Amino acid sequence: MDKQYNNAFWHLVFVAILITIGTGVYLSSKSIDYTWRWERIPQYLINTEPQDITAPFDGTVELSDNDKTVTLIPDNGEDPFVLKQFDILNVDDGDIVFEGDALAGLDNWQIGPITWGLVMTLKISMVSLVFALIIGLFTGLARISANPALRNLSITYIELIRGTPLLVQIFIFYFFIGTVLELDRFTAGVAALAVFTGAYIAEIIRSGIQSIHPGQMEAARSLGMNYVQAMVYVILPQAFKRTLPPMAGQFINLIKDSSLVSVIAITDLSKAGREVVNSTFAPFEVWFTVALLYLVLTGALSWMVQKLEKRLAASD
């Protein structure tokens, strides 16, 4: 009973802290001279404004009896313009319209620029993740190899990549390697993210393999397995379970690090946010929205990894 009481008490403390922080943020926003315009944000996520159908020339409008057909009779005697497909009618029978005036409209749902930026962030993160896993796996295996050349090459790669900023590496991949190999922006950004993340994944895999007792490899070899078979069927499955939490953290970092590719004009979520800020002059609303979308991405990934971790733990 006391334990339940203590748990309830500390849950209340947690809620009180959150309320205090929220109140502090609210009062801070009130202390600055800023007009909040949240109503501007939804159109940059999903644009539901109808698409206008404009008059191709000056003329007079004629409507059918059931208002299902709009005919624009030109003033200069040319062929009339007939419109049959529309959702919104903006003119009446007998109206005189000029070239460029809206005759009707079509209901049109379009993805806004922030959502397009979110899609690009997902795309570049997922592609980079696949290549980073491949690079990290082979580099991690080379890191513990008995071959001095492979081991020294992997150490050099890991230390070189981890010792330089990702932003500098993106510039090198785009302006130098990209120019030599004629890479587009997306490919250069993916390559930079994959190489950068692969170095960290290599160390995670290396530590996971070395955490497995050496007797596991010896037992597998004594059963007639060669080194590759023992690594694939015995060592790596166990190491994968142990490296899943740090690997998830690295995946989350990759999603956040992908925001740096905006410096080479890739319209990811961060660059889309900057463009929307320039057109709306609502920086706080836009950046809070961008931060929330990043939080949704990383939170969903963290949730999936936790589910996978529990499933693998249950299979032991």
UniProtKB/TrEMBL annotation:
Gene Ontology biological process terms from the UniProt entry: amino acid transport
Transmembrane segments: 7-27, 114-139, 160-180, 186-202, 223-240, 286-305
Domain ABC transmembrane type-1: 118-305
UniProt topology in membrane: Multi-pass membrane protein
Pfam (any one): BPD_transp_1
Function field: Part of the binding-protein-dependent transport system for glutamine; probably responsible for the translocation of the substrate across the membrane.
Record-given protein name: Putative glutamine transport system permease protein GlnP
Organism encoding this protein: Motiliproteus coralliicola
